[in-house]
Amino acid sequence: MMIEEKEKSPGVLLQDQLTKKWESAWKDLDSEDTLAIKMINDDYIDFISRGKTERKCAEISVKMAEDAGFKSLEDYLKVGKIVPGNKIYMIHKKKAVVLFIAGSDSIENGMAIVGAHIDAPRLDLKPSPLYECDDMAFFKTHYYGGIKKYHWVTIPLALHGAVVKKDGEIIDISIGEAADEPVFCITDLLPHLSQEQNTKKMSEGITGEGLNLIVGSQPFNEKDIKEGVKLNILKLLSEKYGLREEDFATAELEVVPAGPGRNVGFDESLVGGYGQDDRVCAYTALKAILDQENPKRTLCVILADKEEIGSYGNTGMQSHFFENSVAEVIDLMGITKPELALRRCFMHSEMLSADVTAGVDPNYTGTHDKLNAPYIGKGIVLSKYGGSRGKSGSNDAHAEFMGKMRKTLDDAGVVWQMGELGRVDLGGGGTIAHILAEYGMDVLDCGPALLSMHSPFELVSKVDVYMCFKGYKAFLN
Question: What is the CATH T-level fold of the domain 122-257, as seen in this structure?
Answer without folding.
Answer: Aminopeptidase i, Domain 2 (2.30.250)
